[in-house]
Amino acid sequence: MPTAYQIKDQPTPYYLTFHVVWCLGLFQKIRQGQQLQRITQQYAEGSTTTAKLWAGACEYITENGQQKTLTYLSGPEGVFALHVKNPNGSENIRYIHKDHLGSWHTITDENSNLLQELSFDAWGNRRNPATWRAFNGTPPTPLFDRGFTGHEHLYAFSLINMNGRIYDPGIGRFLSPDPVLQFPNFTQGLNPYAYALNNPLRFVDPDGYSLAGQIIATTLVIALSGGNPILGALIYSVVMTIDHAIEQGRNVNAGDLFGYFTKTFVMSAISMGATKSIGGYFDQFERTGLRELRRALAHGTFNGAMRFAQGGKFEHGFMSGFVSSLGGSFMQANSPNMSTGAQITMAAVIGGTAEKLGGGKFANGAVTGAYVMMFNHLSAQIEKEIDVNKFREKYFGHVEGLRNLYTDEIPDGYSLEGNVFINNRTRGGAGGVTVYVGDGMSDVYLSPYAMKDVFVLYEVLGHEMIHVAHRNHFGVSHNSSHSEFAAYTWSMAVRRRLYGIDQGYKDLQKRRSLLYKQNSAYNYDKFGFHSNIPRCLWDW
Fold it and tell me: DSSP secondary structure string, 439-468?
C-alpha cells in the first residue's frame, strides 16, 4: 500500500501543498493550486523521469527532457479526439472510440487506421482485447493514460484516478470512503468504499461520489418551491452547494463554493424559468391534441439544448422533455383526481425511463420529467393552491356561506373546454360556478380562465362571492335570476373601472336602476361589495 504525507515546510507563493508517494522504488509528487486542483505531477522510476503540467484542456508531458503536448478535444459525449504535438514538432490527431460505459477501447488516426485496441474487465483491469483474458506477462504500453470509463490510469501503481477519489480495480473498491452514504435503504449502497453500487456493467462513477445531493435537492424543490422557479433554483443550488462542500471535505474553499453555487443557480433558474414560460404560453390556447404535441416538442427541444450546453447529448434531453410532457398532458386529461405529488412522481419515472431507453441516465431524465410536470403542467395549479384563498381573504374578507373554493376541479354538469366551464345542458360558458350544497353553504369553482391574471380573478371571484352571499342570506327563497342580475351588474362596473370599457355601460345603468327599484334586496352594496378597484390590486 502506498504511503502518502504532506510536506508542510516547502515555501511557495503559488502552491498550497505537495503530495509525495513512494511505492516499491517508484516516486510520485503532485502539486496543487489554490483551488486544490492538480497542476503538476512528477513521476520517477529508475533513470526515467516524467513530468506533467495541466492547463485547461492541454496536458504537457516532459520525459527525460523531451516535451509532448496533448490537447483533449471534447463534445457533448466527452473526449472524442486528442491533438498530439510530438517532441520533433510533428502533429497529428488521434480519435477515441468508446463503449457504453465511456471506456476507451479503440484509437485510430486521421485515416481510420487502427493504432491501438484496449479492453477492460467489469472492474477496470486491463485485459487482452482479442481473448478478453488477463495478459500473460506485461501488457502493451498504452498510447495514452486514459481508459476505463474515460478516467486516468496510474499504471505504475495499478490505480485509477476518478478525480474525487482513487479507485483500485484489483479489489473493485475506492481507497477512501464516500463522504455521503448514497442509498442507506439499499444494501449495495451501505459500503462507502464500493464502486458503482457493485454493478460496474451498468453504472459508472464519474467523479467518485454519489448522486444523493441531486436526489435530495430535487425532492426539496418539489416540496418547498410552490412552483416559483427562482425559489426552486435557489433551493436546488443551496442543497447542491452543501453536497459539493461535503464531497470536497477538507479540500473545500469559499471561492470554489461561490463559483459552484453561481453556476448551479444560473443554469437551474434558466431551466425552471423556461419550462414555466413554455407552459404559460401553451396554456392560453384551447386544449387539443395538437397543442399538447407542440408543447411536448417545445419542452423536448429546450431540454435537449440545455443538456447539450452542459456537455450531454441533445437527444437524451429531448427524449426526457418530450415524453414527460406528453405523459403530463395525458395524466391531466385522464386522471384529474391524482394528487400533485403523484403526478410529479409519475412524470419523473416517465422522463427517467424515456432517457434510459434512449441511452442516457435515468436520474437526469427523472429530474427533467419532475420539473416539466411541476413548472409546466402543474404550475398554475400549485400557485392557485397557495394564493387564491389569500387573495379572497384580502379583497373580499370573510364571506358568509363559503364552504370550499376549488381551482382544480370541474363542477358536476359542466365540462372544461379551452379555459372555461361549459354547461353541458345549455352550452353556456362561465369563468366560475357557484354550487349550493345546503344549509346556507356553497362551493365555488374557478376555471383556468379565472386564473389568467389578478384582474380577471378579482372580477370572477367577486361575481361568485356575491352568489355565495345571496345563497346564504336568502336560503330556500333565493332567486337565481335576481342574484345573477346583481352579480352581472357588479362585473360590468368592475370591467369599466379596470379596462375603461364603455360598451354596454348605458345598459348597465338601466340594469342598475332596475335593480335598485325592483330587486333592491339583492343589491350587492348591502352585502359589503363595491365596484371600486383596490389600489393595491396592481401590486399583487
Answer: TTEEEEEE-GGGGS-HHHHHHHHHHHHHHH
CB burial of residue 286 (10 Å; 0-12, 13-18, 19+) = exposed
Beta carbons within 10 angstroms of residue 221's beta carbon: 26
Contact assessment for residue 118 and residue 147, using Cβ atoms and an 8 Å cutoff:
yes
The verdict on 326 and 441 lying in the same domain is no
DSSP 401: T
- Among 377, 409, 444, the domain boundary falls at 377
> Which band of pLDDT confidence, cut at 50, 70 and 90, is reported for residue 9?
very low
Give the phi and the psi of residue 230 in degrees, each rounded to 5: -70, -45
Q: Structure pTM?
A: 0.49
536/368: higher pLDDT: 368
**Pairing mode, if any, of strands 402-406 and 441-446?**
parallel
Q: Which domain holds residue 528?
A: 386-539
Using the Cα atoms of residue 28, residue 31, residue 37 and residue 39 in order, give the sign of their dihedral: negative
Q: Which of 270, 205, 210, 274 is nearest to 237 (CA)?
A: 270
Residue 455 has which C-alpha cell? 384582474
| Max intra-chain CA distance, the chain | 112
> Which of 346, 377, 408 is the last residue before a domain boundary?
377
d(CA 468, CA 465): 5
- Mark whether 347 and 395 lie in a shared domain: no
| Same domain (yes/no): 403, 365 | no
Can you tell me the distance from the alpha carbon of 281 to that of 296, in angstroms, rounded to the nearest whole number?
Answer: 12
* pLDDT > 90 in the chain, percent: 28
Which span out of 105-119, 317-331, 477-491 was modeled with the highest average pLDDT?
105-119
Cell readout for 28 is 510520485
